[in-house]
Amino acid sequence: MHTLLRIKDVASKTDVAFSTSLSAKGTGDIGPFNTHVILVFRNVFVNIGNAYNPDTGHFIAPVRGAYHFEIHIYGHGHPSRPSSAALIKNGEHVVIAYEYQSSGSADSANGVTLLLEIGDDVFVRQWPNSWIYDGFNSPT
Description:
Elements: E1 2-9, E2 14-21, E3 28-30, E4 37-38, E5 43-48, E6 59-60, E7 65-76, E8 83-89, E9 92-99, E10 105-116, E11 121-126, E12 132-134
Antiparallel strand pairs: 1-2, 1-7, 2-5, 3-12, 4-11, 6-11, 7-10, 8-9, 8-11
Keywords: Secreted, Signal
Subcellular location: Secreted
């Protein structure tokens, strides 16, 4: 699973961008869990402006502006488990990437541009009873 964000605040000339994947090394399934779980993306490719915290999984907007977020997920098909994760802003559900396949592979993506104020909190939450696979196919 990957996230990507890029913004440039023209007024203050502040660059903010981050790109991540779940695991810093190794492969494997994440979940299923019986409740929502905040996903912490430990493999940070870029974190310009240091607004993404790889210890908590939270992105805190450092400047007011339009921010574009994308989430991409992959999972193994399963008769009773989807692969899903949702983008959350200040505790409220915004969009979800969801895929259910009874066998084979399952992948989905979603994105949104949000107007954020300084201090707004954005994170990705894995849906209950879902699983996500993270492998060596992360971008480098």
